[in-house]
Amino acid sequence: MIDADRTLVLYGDGAREAARRMLPGLPDARFVPAGAPGEPGPTRLRAAFKEAVKAELTQVVLVAGMDEQARFLGGVWGVAGVLESITRDMGGDAALAAAVAEAPTLRDAYDRWEAAGILGPCGRELCRRTAGELERLAAETAEAASSPAAGSPAAGSPVAAQVVMVDPEGERMVGMYGRMAR
Questions:
Q1: In 3-state terms, what secondary structure has residue 171?
Q2: What is the C-alpha to C-alpha distance for residues 153 and 113, in angstroms, rounded to an integer?
Q3: pLDDT in tens, 13-47
Q4: Tell me, what DSSP letter sits at residue 38?
Q5: Cβ neighbours of residue 69 closer than 8 Å, sequence gap 6 or more
């Protein structure tokens, strides 16, 4: 059961209605855009997780498309590197991985995963990596906020991340990964 007072739902471009359909029991105030106008999505996601830790929220759900998640993770390896790695890890051969990495748009990369029959596994893996990075950020924030007098640093993320990938139209769930709040 989701605790409405300790849960935040972030939604990507075009995914607000899908997020509302997935979590109809939460009040409107718990739904916040994953990015603000003029602010890159990765910056907003990082800020939202830091705020979630400070507000002592226990659960953050991200409902977003492939583009927001890939851009968020792309800060480490670049978007093409993330997509290539996921494609290979989910059973795609070298040619498909290269085609996905070289796709002119993220929509083209999505379509290549779908045509190859690996959209589901790749979408779930993208969600898994996004959730992991979000929880890592939350743990890092909690650790930085703890004082040396408080004892040992946080042992993991105080915020459970659930990530849902929706199709480019924002209509249907394509992949999901995450854990429930403790």
A1: coil
A2: 40
A3: 889 999 999 999 999 999 988 866 555 567 878 88
A4: T
A5: 62, 126, 127, 129, 130, 163, 165
